[in-house]
Design a protein that fits this description.
This protein is an alpha/beta fold and about 525 residues long. The chain has 2 domains: about 5-215 and about 505-529; about 220-495, Carbon-nitrogen hydrolase (Nitrilase/N-carbamoyl-D-aminoacid amidohydrolase), CATH 3.60.110.10. It has helices at about 5-10, 10-25, 45-50, 55-70, 80-105, 115-135, 155, 160-165, 165-185, 195-215, 245-260, 280-295, 345-350, 405-415, 435-450, 500-505, 505-529; strands at about 220-230, 265, 300-305, 315-320, 325-330, 370-380, 385-400, 420-425, 450-455, 465, 470-475, 485-495. The strands form 2 sheets. A 6-stranded mixed sheet has the order 5-4-3-2-1-12. A 6-stranded mixed sheet has the order 6-7-8-9-10-11, with helices on one face. The chain starts with a helix and ends with a helix.
Length: about 525
């Protein structure tokens, strides 16, 4: 009797296998960070799903998804325990949908002679579609997408400049499915396990492409960027009695950073302890302005902002001070955190405030994808010549979890940004894996668009990510990046590159959608005959 038949007869064993898949997936993400486990994590689930009707397959896969999200976004309990459980219950639905699609194709395996090969691609494509839906429906939550588990597997993730993070997830599921078919057919006298050969071939081609891209040399202007990590305790950030302490700390750290002569200084999200453009907080504006003038360098600061016309509108913003102290640009966050920065359908969900450990914000969403710019000046002289070069540098800012959404980064780069900055505050989640999971998203945005991503956090992982997805430097003390204050500067190469993904977006995902739609129609058509 095969293992799958034993599982079919034992509901408890099916749930055990589903839980095992969830555990393996959790272990592949930061915290345990054994990314290789992702390549086998779905095997137990596939055996548990085999030959199950759609409703039962949904329940089994949903159980896996619920446990997986409990294990990966557990840190949200530091903000709201009820919200963490509710979000896990919701996100598990997409695993359940995947289980239904798996059961559909499994139940019609005899419809085509090349069943295993077509099912192999169907299963991988179904996962991509489910994950894309999770990342886009109801504001979207693409955190802990399967491909992110491979963020530090540099040769594998280079294909993201073609397919995005979803292509890496496709490859992982395809390998899992090929192993599933190989184990299933191990007792059959098959000369060639075709699905497994396909998986090996695609991994080989992916690695070839990956190593080719890792050997690319990016050329362009050298820009020295400096980041400030203030490490302000969460309960102090909005306490007016600590305003002077907070601002003085940022001033001190910035003056220290200025000694390294950066071309651009970056402060974290909401680093300014008040409303920068509010008349009653005028001293905040003046002190940041004077700091920029003293260093003669542009400073990007995170700040809440009050609309000058609509006094009831508030924004989570990034403001760029130029080297002469003037405001060079403002960006208002376009993708707010639901139930964090605002309450969707407030009249219906107003009760949610009762479960939050901190009051939920009432921010408005911005509408413009701002591209900041400043002029980089270089001089050189000798007894024989003297020259001056002035270059306009264009960059955009992702605030908080906006780097989770590929389309936002892509929109900024399409508008001309050659550098992406992510300012955030991960102090909410204490000493957990959340900051490292968050940084995984920035790694993929760098590879997808082949741009540098510079992260400045209140506390978290303030770091520099190059166009190949490598973390080249980070703020830290004795190897620790969390809950330390400090500064770091790094020379980065600003290059003008366009990738397939940047131009065509989620085309790979749309192809997956078309494929599974056509296959399902084909199956249904054959069933009617």
């Amino acid at each position: 009797m095969t293992p799958s038949h034993e599982i079919t007869k034992s509901p408890h064993l099916r749930l055990l296998y589903a839980a095992l898949s969830a555990a393996l997936l959790v272990f592949s993400f930061p915290g345990i960070n054994l990314e290789f486990l992702a390549w086998i994590a779905f095997l137990p689930l596939f055996f548990a799903l085999e030959n199950k009707k759609p409703a039962e397959a949904f329940r089994i896969a949903y159980f896996t998804g619920f446990l997986f999200f409990l294990g990966t976004i557990y840190w949200l309990a530091h903000v709201t325990l009820a919200g963490m459980i509710a979000l896990s219950l919701y996100l598990g639905l997409y695993f359940g949908l995947f289980g239904m699609l798996f059961s559909f194709v499994s139940g019609h395996s005899s419809a085509l002679r090349q069943a295993d090969v077509i099912r192999l691609f169907f299963i991988a494509a179904a996962w991509v579609v489910c994950e894309w839906l999770r990342s886009n429906i109801m504001s979207g939550f693409g955190w802990a997408a399967l491909g992110y588990s491979q963020s530090f597997n540099l040769p594998i993730i280079q294909i993201a400049d073609i397919s995005g993070v979803y292509g890496v997830g496709f490859l992982i599921i395809l390998v899992n499915a090929s192993l599933f078919f190989a184990v299933k057919n191990i007792k059959k006298k098959m000369v060639l396990p075709i699905p497994l050969l396909i998986a090996v071939f695609l991994i080989f081609m992916t690695l070839c492409y990956g190593f080719f891209r890792l050997n690319n040399i990016f050329t362009g202007e050298i820009l020295r960027v400096g980041v400030v990590q203030g490490n302000i305790e969460q309960d102090k950030k909005w306490d007016s009695s600590f305003r002077e302490e907070i601002l003085s700390k940022y001033e001190l750290l910035t003056r220290e950073l200025m000694k390294e002569k950066p071309d651009l200084v970056i402060w974290p999200e909401t680093s300014v302890p008040g409303y920068l453009n509010n008349a009653s907080d005028g001293s905040l504006f003046e002190r940041v302005k004077l700091l920029a003038i003293a260093g003669k360098k542009p400073i990007l600061v995170g700040t809440p902002r009050e609309d000058r016309i609509d006094k009831n509108a508030y924004y989570n913003s990034a403001v760029l001070f130029s080297g002469d102290g003037s405001i060079a640009g403002t960006y208002d966050k376009v993708h707010l955190v639901p139930f964090g920065e605002y309450v969707p359908l407030k009249k219906i969900f107003s009760f949610v405030n009762n479960f939050a450990q901190s009051p939920i914000g009432d921010f408005s969403a911005g509408s413009d994808y701002t591209v900041f710019n400043f002029f980089l000046e270089r001089r050189s002289s000798s007894s024989d010549y003297s020259w001056k070069m002035v270059k306009k540098i264009k960059f955009s800012c992702l605030i908080c979890f906006e780097d989770v959404f590929p389309q936002i980064s892509r929109s900024f780069v399409k508008k001309g940004a050659t550098l992406l900055v992510n300012i955030t505050n991960d102090a909410w989640y204490k000493r957990t894996s959340a900051p490292y999971q968050h940084a995984q998203c920035s790694i993929f945005r760098a590879v997808e668009n082949r741009v540098n991503v510079v992260r400045a956090t209140n506390t978290g992982l303030s770091c520099f990510i190059d166009q190949k997805g490598r973390i080249t430097a980070a703020v830290g003390m004795n190897g620790d990046n969390l809950f330390v204050d400090g500064v770091r500067s790094k020379d980065i190469t600003i290059s003008h590159t366009r990738t397939f993904y940047n131009v065509y977006g989620d085309l790979f995902t749309y192809i997956c959608m078309i494929f599974i739609s056509l296959y399902i129609c084909s199956i249904l058509g054959r069933s009617k005959k």
